[in-house]
User: Fold these one by one.
Assistant:
Number 1:
Amino acid sequence: MRTLTTRGTRVTFAALATGIALVAAGCGSAGKPIEPAPVGAAGRPLPANAEVPAKSAGGGGAADASCDTRSTAPTGTSVTAGSTMAKIKSRGQLIAGVDQTTYLFGFRNPTTGELEGFDIDMVKQIAKAIFGTDQGTIRYRAIPSSQRIPVLKNHEVDVVVRTMSITCDRLKDINFSSKYYVAGQRVLVNKNSPAKKLGDLGGKKVCATKSSTSLPRIAAEAAKPVPVAVDNWSDCLVMLQQGQVDAVSTDDVILAGMAAQDPTLQVVGDRFSTENYGIGIPKDQTDMVGFVNSVLDTVRAGPWRDSYNSWLTGKLPPADPPQGEYK
Amino acid sequence: MTSTATRTGSPGGTESPPADSRSGLAGLLDLPAAAVRGIARSAAKTPGRLSVIAVGLVLLSLLTGLVGTIVIGDRKDTINDLIDHREPLAAASQQVYRSLSDADATAASAFLSIGTEPPELRQRYDTDIAQAGAALAKAASDSAGVDDAAAQVAVLSQQLPVYTGVVETARANNRLGYPAGGAYLREASELMRSKILPAAQDLYRIDTERLAEEQDDATAVPWFTTLLVLALVAALVVTQVYLTRRTNRVLNIGLVVATGAVVLALLWGAVAVVVQGVLVGNGADDGSKQVDQLVRARIAALQARTDETLTLVARGEGGAYEKDFMVLASALAKTDGTGGLLGEAKDMTAGQDSAAHVEAAIKDAKAWFAAHGEVRKRDDTGDYNGAVTLAIDPKAEGSAAAAFTRLDGNLVAAIDVGRQAFLDATRGADRALTLLAPGFAVLAVVAAAGVTMGIRERLREYR
């Protein structure tokens, strides 16, 4: 009887233990396997100071008719004593604010290390007129779009030749030469993009530089594209190639330079603005404006076409130098 | 023998407990109480008391031996960890920073150079990236469990491939003569400076702090063990006094042997731990702390060098970089070469093997700052190409590149001396503890055996 009870107890215990083991093994959450590579979304880096979307769509204003955009009449290419040109001459160098990132207009040629382009040709012509040569007489200062007005106001440079449109807004702060090139805003997209004009890019990201005239026009488009602002035009190309924007919209000459660097891109749509490029000169140096306008007159007579041929022919339709309009 | 002694102490007089009435769990719970009652009863008489004392002393000896052996073994592990992990990791994270920063400056230099990229710059960049990758793998191997370090390692290991990708895109565009190359290079540099280098710097800081913490651990006084050993010595002495009074015999060989063993363990342990602590401290003062100072100087120099190059890449819009250079340069050393991180390093290393390297580094810094002044002068007066040559061509007369390379080389030499000093001192600390852990255990067992034999001899006299 006693043996039986003991055996019974043992059996009960065994059953109990088995039950506990089974229940403990079977129930309760085991948690999840450890994630081997806990990475969220990875993305390409952004260019320095890129704003997505643009914090302010303020730009250089449009080429409106609210003011007289004609320049001071040419005053000849002689360097008169006491003039701004004489000061530059005695300094030994013309300080020019330029772009080193915009292919065809102002860019650093990696094979030579020199700055080249249509705008750079203009700077060289001015230096030639002052010094008789452009060798060692120019000090280039590469500036982002947003610094074009400030460097002139602070007299850090003598001229700014950097795809800069003559606008009434800018005329309040600086002087402009007569127009030396006429461009117009268009749109650059991937060849496989369905967009054919800015109006097709509603809700899509469209890139332009800060303080450019292109940025407010993107923001003003009725289809409401999202403006993205960067420091330099080549940053727009980088973002387009990295898939961070859907299009770049600015002057056709700048877009042609980008398309020339990447055959998978194309410029689409019609020109929807007229940009008259002028050379920026500090507000208080009107003598320089007359001098530069004379230089530009000589340029229109011949060198302009040489520059156009070496940089733009084949990438843009043939064009003639724009005639200067003076007050 | 313990049970024998207890039986001798309680000769049958008490009635046996009612075992049948209490059984199972209640009986089990009753056992300790019964034992305590038994011990108390037997302790009332001398033989019983002796047995209790013997058991107590044996237990205390064994406990002391166990704790001491574990504590000493632990400390030896800590010291070995310093040598095998902590210091190499701090060095690895320093290497990650250096390689990446140098890669950034080299990529910018290559961009500035005209025409085909100079093969030595290409080689240098490739080596930098390879070293950064290898050092990162090393640094990552130990970041598990340290969330801060793991987060930095994650940033580094995710962004480094992205960085190299962007640099290669820049290179391809450059080869084609497209200015997009310059834009990609600026983007890569921005990524490096805003994300990658801060992570590398944080990782270095974390690893250096962990090294210092573990050095503190390895020099802390083992209070608990010390107290245990002292208590054991006291207990042995008191027991001997008690026995002398009870038995009128002056010496008990067993207890004397036990006391001798414990005192020997105490002296050996004290000397070894003090020497070990001093050596670990030396490893920190003459080694890792100097290395940290020199590494911070090196990081400042690398950052300034990148600023110098990027000022030229920006070509006129580099005012912010130049300002940054000035700040870093004065943090490194004043223009006359005194004070700053290098001046402090000079004070720290005075009279040591690395002093010559540090002094040479200060001279190089002076030469570099002078060359930088000339670079800025050339650039500011329009001689851009002359400025570039002076900045990046190591063969040019009095070039910034050559002075910087010499400075970096001297800092590396001083860092290597400091690392060796750390290793020598810390290895010495490890050797100071040689055999101490097993020795401590053996001595504790000897003490326990001595106690047992000594007291058993006395107990025999009561039979």
Number 2:
Amino acid sequence: MQKRKKWLWFALFTMPVFLIFLSVVVVPFLLGIYYSFFDWDGLSLNAKIFVGFQNYVDTFSDKKFWAASLNTIIFTMLSVLLINILGFAFANFVTGKLRARNLSRAMLFMPYLIGGLILGYIWKFIFEDGLSALGEATGLTNIFFDWVNSPDMALYALIIVATWQMAGYIMIIYITGIQSIPEEFLEAARVDGAGYWQTMFKVKMPLLMPSFTVCLFMTLANCFKMYDINLSLTGGGPASASELVAMNIYNEIFSKSNFGYGQAKAILFFFVIAAVTMMQVYMTKKREVTL
Amino acid sequence: MKKARGGILGAILILFSIIWLSPLYIVLVNSFKSRSEMYANVLALPEQLTWTYYTEAFAKMNFGTSFLNSLLLTLASIFLIVVLSSMAAWMLARTGGKLSYILFGVFIATMLIPFQTIMMPLMQVMSWIGKNTIFQMLNSRGGLIYMYIGFGASMAIFLYHGFVKTIPISIEEAATIDGGNKWNIFWRIVFPILKPTTVTVIILDVIWIWNDYLLPSLTLTSRDLRTIPLSTAKFFGQYQNEWNMAMAALAMTIIPVVLLYIFAQKYIIKGVAAGSVKG
């Protein structure tokens, strides 16, 4: 009796959210693996034809998918690097004794609150009209021109917008890390005659490894999955020059109606993200120092 | 001397922050300009404040309805995420045994799954539910809220679970001896203690749900149900090159966010920091 009552309480508290979660995340995930072995156009009346691993094999010869993958790798690597360098630098500037630090911090963080879709549209205007106007005004038309509609530069336009969105967010995480460094450590370094950069590299940065772990994880995962900015800023164009994997998957499924094939890409996408982020967390965690 | 140097550095920092936000300035000033005025100088202040582009964009975006839809969807989803996740997380943290362990493990293990991996089968499941039960999941607010609970649960449970572990159990035990049942113990005693985590969850989820585009774009088809990101995307699809009206539309979507930020800045930054440390 007592045991049954305990179980009822347990079920009452955990089952509502667990059942919703099962139907929204777990079942679709498993069903997604199942769909990836079929050739199907998405219409429930039409037959699903079992093709085994053929969908996965086909991805190897899919040039557009490879181009999108390469774009995603370049985009992710450069964005992660830029976001973290800027975020870390900002964090160091705004944790000093300057009176302006709180206002600066608030301003630098603000872009993160505006959704990627809206940000993309804002920057589309800046790249399309603002940048070309700037080029004409300064005469530097080989630097300042419409990046969004240039096959060579569209991807870099994405990187700039993603950096603008996330640098302030990553700054907040680094600030939390910097503020948790015990003042004695910095004081001791100062007494021992360490300069600014020595303190930075020998004391601050090793102690901040947990922050690096979190920040790299967040930026890696977010950049890999980038879709909104891609959609609104470049639409993947010109001529899919800036198409990222998330958009490639979306188009394969919902525009071309290759549900089975697109789903196989989606499953691969999951495994790559899981592998890369887990490897990164493992590698940076190893370098964390315990006090 | 030192003070003067600090003043200069501070001024540089503020100046840099202003430049950092210049894209927002560009949106704002150009939302008042005519086409020719805009191309004459993108950076200049408008000659006069004309609201025509705002009224035009407001009507074409169906802004009022979209705003209310976004608001309703965000509030309802977050309310349910907080209620259901905090209850589950507390129970999972306070009950030993394999089942708790497995359930918690399932919530956490799936956090790495990108939305794109499950979006298509999710739509199949939701349309199946719609056909086989009385619940309309696609193209309905209720269905979308249901999905937001599913997607928001993992992180909320993770954050609550971590916090519950730090609360001494003795408080709850004392209440049990006094004869309180679990429901009352949770809502009267535990939930108020969880407040810092509740604030974090609310802030992270507001940023996420308010700005989310892909999920609502897949589920909502009626014009009357569109959220702000959806109507913005539709608007840009139609009025690509009418930049002055587009700037007014963008300004309208940004202003509520900025206002909220000005009032709740301290909480927002704290909440984001707390969420990341535990994540």
